[in-house]
Write a structure and sequence with these properties.
single chain; 305 residues; alpha/beta; Peroxisomal Thiolase, Chain A, domain 1; 4-stranded mixed β-sheet; 10 strands; 31% helix; globular
Length: 305
């Protein structure tokens, strides 16, 4: 489709294959509904028991209602309130921490956080610098109260709005509503200045991981898993090296899915859930447009069985 090769893509990103959602009228809510439905069925959870659903997405089905509203309705969550969180590739981390606060305050007993994006809907498939990176996907997690020192324990979350010039979708919002001219100018696609975004991501995602380790007195031996946003294998390796972790402690599935934005971290947890043990120390890390970035320290609260 574009002037590139498998070798060029693989050596620069680590991506070998991706998933693309096809079908008339199918958006992010379709994938998010599948992920949430699987979660409810796998753990025999009554959707009427869910108090809150937060959907992290950069590609909502429409401006309103929120994609989270659609997912909650599709899944029969008649007692839950729901909304979207938009923070680009860091959206899942921000939503996860928001959901954890609702649990911590006692306001909610069961919170589902789903992250998903249909990135193919905003990718210019004539632009080889961006079209090789992104895929479609969604994943979901359940948060519940605990009396043990487990779950979401600490976070370092940051943003810098001045970074928008390097990574954004120019049109489609209130500043530049959709029109014939914005469509003809390709302003509804992802715009990314790759090298600048790469340098900022390497530095800041790594800094957040190191800071969360220092704040919680964690050494490389204490960390069981790094769960990084799957944007680029070189960014992942930079964070791993700063943390002095071996490759065996890093969750990587970028080669299978590409960058699914809000979906990457929950998809990693889904792929690795059978290898996670109660008490494992996980550091979740992400960087995204905005700029947004951060790291979250989690002590896994569930045994594989």
């Amino acid at each position: 489709m574009v002037d590139t090769s498998d070798e060029w893509i693989t050596t620069r990103t680590g991506i070998k294959e991706r998933r693309i959602l096809k079908g008339e009228g199918l958006g992010t809510s379709y994938m998010a509904t599948k992920a949430v439905t699987n979660l409810l069925q796998n753990y025999n959870i009554d959707p009427l028991d869910i108090d809150l659903l937060i959907c992290a997405t950069t590609t909502p089905d429409m401006q309103f209602p929120a994609t989270g509203n659609l997912v909650a309705s599709n899944c029969g969550m008649k007692n839950a309130f729901s909304y979207d969180v938009s923070a680009a590739c860091c959206g899942f981390l921000f939503a996860l921490n928001t959901g954890a606060q609702f649990i911590a305050t006692g306001r909610c007993k069961k919170v589902i956080v789903v992250g998903g994006d249909k990135m193919s809907s905003i990718v210019d498939y004539t632009d080889r610098t961006t079209c090789i990176i992104f895929g479609d996907g969604a994943g979901a997690v359940l948060l519940e109260p605990t009396t043990e020192e487990q779950g979401v324990l600490d976070s370092v979350l940051k943003s810098d709005g001045s970074g928008w010039v390097h990574l954004h979708q120019k049109a489609g919002g209130s500043q530049r509503p959709a029109s014939i001219s914005t469509v003809m100018a390709n302003e509804h696609y992802i715009y990314q200045e790759g090298q600048k975004v790469f340098r900022f991501a390497v530095q800041n995602m790594s800094d957040a991981c190191v800071e969360i380790m220092q704040r919680n007195n964690l050494t490389a031996d204490d960390v069981d898993w790094l769960v990084p946003h799957q944007a680029n294998l070189r960014i992942i390796n930079a964070a791993r090296e700063r943390m002095e972790l071996p490759e065996s402690k890093v969750m990587e599935n970028i080669q299978r899915y590409g960058n699914t934005t809000s979906g990457t971290i929950p998809l990693c947890l889904w792929d690795w859930q059978d290898r996670l043990k109660k008490g494992d120390n996980l550091i979740l890390a992400a960087f995204g447009g905005g700029f947004t970035w951060g790291a979250t320290y989690i002590k896994w609260a569930m045994d594989p069985q």
